Amino acid sequence: MYDVAQIRADFPILGREVNGKPLVYLDNGASAQKPQVVIDAITRGYAQDYANVHRGLHYLSTVATEAYEAVRGKVARFLGAAEDEVVFTTGSTEAINMVSYAWAAPRMQPGDEIVLSLLEHHANIVPWHFLRERQGVVLKWVAPEPDGSLPAEKVLEAIGPRTRLVAVTQMSNVLGTRVDVAAITRGAHARGVPVLVDGSQGAVHAPVNLAEIGCDFYAVTGHKLYGPSGSGAIIIARERLAEMRPFLGGGDMIRDVSTDSVTYAEGYARMEAGTPGIVQQIGFGAALDYLMGLGMDNIARHEADLRDYAQSRLAGLNWLTVQGNAPGKGAIFSITLDGQAHAHDISTILDRRGIAVRAGTHCAMPLLTHLGLTATARASFGLYNTRAEVDALISGLELCHELLG
Ligand SMILES: Cc1ncc(COP(=O)(O)O)c(C=O)c1O
Fold this sequence. Notes:
By secondary structure, the protein is an alpha/beta fold. 40% of the residues lie in helices and 17% in strands.
């Protein structure tokens, strides 16, 4: 039984008011709120168990190292991955830049191609633009269908003899489109092409089993998974990890250093230089425990109900457009009012009622350009949202329509 009232009580911030109104937090696509267990893990990490990891042999260093390293196993369990393929990061932006710099850059020649979709977040675009600018790599773009869906076959058709990587999101942060990344991976692998999946949104809203998906790189970011900002991980298949050059140089990622030589650690350690976000990752682990406790299947079912309810209510408003309506999409709604109303005005009016939505291009400018838009107001739902909050959004949008026409 998914008791949303009880779940909401786990998140202290949901009890506060904004602008004199109860907070209605619908900006989960940007970042999710934190349950008390995460806040407690962070407090304990600093108040009781803090020292640097992997270094000293003293008691606190051992305690901190054990708590930190235990998170690797939690990430592996959460995603159906092997523990030795989990590389800690500060989030998806770092993860994808790591792959671009440490794996892709050394093996790309001018004219080699990377297949991307127009649904991508800038974090899965700009690191590939670096290779275009610096090395003459060609970016091949796959557009979504008019309903926002991205058929796997369309992505696979873009693969040619020069394609060296497919980099694609599992879920659009703008349209909520879910992408069949398992089918893309199967098809790309059959053509000998590795696949990077941006799981920043996908992993938040449904169970993920990487043993089934089989992709080479899979990035997640802790702060969208109800954990701290500055935490995250990328799962890298062993064969790919072995092919990677070091990313950042410094402590912990080496085997030996002398005045005229350096050798590197093997496996994930080679990609993790310097003092990491120790307590952030411990908080991330607490968030993953919390999600596994609720059950990702249950969360997915709850959010599907919110999606269906929001879709039925939004369908009754004939003066607005919801961008993208792909079958099975997530509970993310990018809204434009028909007419001249700007998304920032919508978000400001909603904010006066304590409703937090995001206005702008959502770090997906190529998609907005493709849609012929300069901005949308995005309501993105999470595990603690309710039908009553959908109603609050609808009545807020009605006020926007009244005021902005
Ligand atoms: C689909 C997607 N990819 C990547 C990112 C970047 O994540 P981060 O900023 O946590 O590195 C985001 C964040 O909005 C996202 O929605």
